[in-house]
């Protein structure tokens, strides 16, 4: 019969054995077989054609490139801002095929052939879009970082109301929604302004809504 001392385990011995087991298990099998790490394969790419602010262009992009990064890093249109990069602040809002979206939450390859409007495509410094001019007039921009997303969203919000699309605060979803401050606030709730210029933004939107130009 074996001596009981042959099976005695110390705490140090258990820890040493466990660490060694984890280290071996974390090494890929091919690396163990060949004795060196296997290089990662190149990231897949795909040719994507977008029509940005009226100009069509094609890029060879990684399939995981977001629309936001495609616009900023490849099209060099830095007016669209990267805020939270998680779809929570709205700073990256652009208009795709007439609908506003958070460009950080969608992949560029999903929009092959789509028409995209960024803040640069709405107006020019010498010829502002009515919503841009209203933001300046009512001081709706303040620090300015969220402003491109706010303006793109505001333009789309007025279009959504005119198109009769109901929101969470619409009392009757079968009736045409009205251009009320309540409707605008609800629809703009995905665009965060750290300066707290919300009342100014609503005033700017109401002016454009009354002028019927956005």
Largest sheet: 5 strands, mixed
Q: Characterize the quaternary organization of these chains.
A: single chain
**How much of the residues is beta strand, in percent?**
5-15%
Fraction in helix: 25-40%
Question: Low-confidence parts lasting 5 or more residues at pLDDT below 50?
Answer: none
Using only CA atoms, what is the Rg?
27 Å
What is the count of β-strands?
5
Strand order of the largest sheet: 2-1-5-3-4
Average residue-wise pLDDT:
89
Secondary-structure element string? HHEEHEEEHHHHH
Q: What does this protein look like?
A:
The chain has helices at residues 11-25, 29-34, 67-74, 119-122, 130-137, 147-162, 181-187, 198-211, and strands at 45-52, 55-62, 93-96, 99-102, 115-117. By secondary structure, it is an alpha+beta fold. Strands 2-1-5-3-4 form a 5-stranded mixed β-sheet, with helices on both faces. A hairpin with a 2-residue loop joins strand 1 and strand 2. It is globular. The model has no long low-confidence stretch (mean pLDDT 89).
């Amino acid at each position: 019969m074996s001596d009981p001392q042959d099976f005695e385990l110390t705490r140090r011995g258990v820890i040493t054995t466990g660490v060694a087991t984890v280290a071996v298990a974390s090494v890929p099998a091919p690396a163990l077989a060949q004795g060196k790490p296997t290089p990662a394969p190149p990231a897949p790419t795909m040719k994507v054609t977008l029509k940005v602010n009226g100009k069509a262009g094609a890029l060879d992009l990684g399939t995981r490139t977001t629309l936001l990064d495609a616009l900023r890093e490849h099209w060099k249109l830095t007016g669209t801002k990267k805020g939270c990069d998680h779809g929570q602040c709205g700073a990256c809002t652009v208009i795709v095929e007439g609908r506003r979206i958070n460009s950080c939450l969608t992949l560029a390859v999903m929009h092959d052939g789509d028409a995209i409007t960024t803040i640069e495509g709405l107006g020019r410094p010498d010829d502002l879009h009515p919503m841009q001019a209203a933001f300046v007039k009512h001081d709706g921009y303040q620090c300015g970082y969220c402003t491109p997303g706010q303006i793109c969203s505001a333009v789309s919000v007025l279009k959504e109301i005119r198109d009769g699309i109901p929101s969470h605060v619409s009392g009757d979803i079968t009736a045409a929604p009205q251009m009320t401050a309540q409707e605008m606030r609800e629809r703009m709730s995905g665009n965060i302004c750290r300066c707290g210029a919300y009342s100014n933004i609503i005033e700017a939107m109401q002016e454009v809504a009354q002028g019927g130009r956005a």
